[in-house]
Amino acid sequence: MDVRIVESLVMLKVGDGVLTMLFPVEHLARWEFGPWAPMMAWFRQRPGLTRAIGAAQVVGSLAVAASLSKTPGRAWPT
Fold it and tell me: Does some domain include residue 2?
């Protein structure tokens, strides 16, 4: 996979994680629709757990970013 695609996905996940940490109830309420509404409501009722998951999301995303190739092309050298 191209490094720019992976880095773009990492940027999205970092942003989502930061929003989840800072505004857990509000962020999840915005996504509480469709078939995943019950799951979002469950997490919205547990803001501490939701913040922890957001922090893990940021840390994991940064770990992926740190492992990426430093040059354009393949995300990870083979």
Answer: no
Within 10 Å of residue 2's Cβ, how many Cβ atoms? 12
* pTM of the predicted protein model: 0.87
On whether residue 51 sits in a domain, the answer given is yes
- Residue 74 forms beta bridges with which residues? 2
> Which candidate, 55, 47, 49, places its Cα nearest to that of 23?
47
What domain count does the chain have?
1
SS3 content of the chain, % helix, strand, coil (to 5): 75, 5, 20
Q: What pLDDT band is residue 77 in, cutting at 50, 70 and 90?
A: confident
